[in-house]
Amino acid sequence: MFTQRKAYYPYISPFDPCPPQRVKTYETPPQLYMVYQPPNLPQYGPYEALKRGTLWPCLFSPYESSGRGDGS
Predict the structure, then answer these.
(1) DSSP 38-72
(2) Residues 55-70: b if buried by 16+ CB within 10 A, e if exposed
(3) Are 30 and 4 in contact (CB under 8 A)?
């Protein structure tokens, strides 16, 4: 199984004047994990598709906050 949220650990310099961010995260879109679009995928209804921004539930990826509150 894949996760859409990835993490990496940047280099932290001993001379950096700012407090370090030990872990940085980013999100990848779900279509990266589909080789092709299979036939007969389930679909949202018209209203739900407009609300979610996609017709197919397997391609829906809600934004999830990192929870840090610092905007990154």
Answers:
(1) -TT-----HHHHHHHT-S-GGG-------S-SS--
(2) bbeeeeeeeeeeeeee
(3) yes
The closest of 38, 44, 72 to 60, measured between CA atoms, is 44
39-62 pLDDT, tens digit each: 888 999 999 999 998 898 888 887
Predicted TM-score of the model (pTM)? 0.57
- The SS3 of residue 18 is coil
Q: What is the pLDDT of residue 71?
A: 47
Q: 58: which 2 tokens?
A: 């397997």
Structure tokens at 47: 């209203």
69 has pLDDT over 80: no
Q: Left, alpha or beta for 45 (phi > 0: left; psi -120 to 50: alpha)?
A: beta
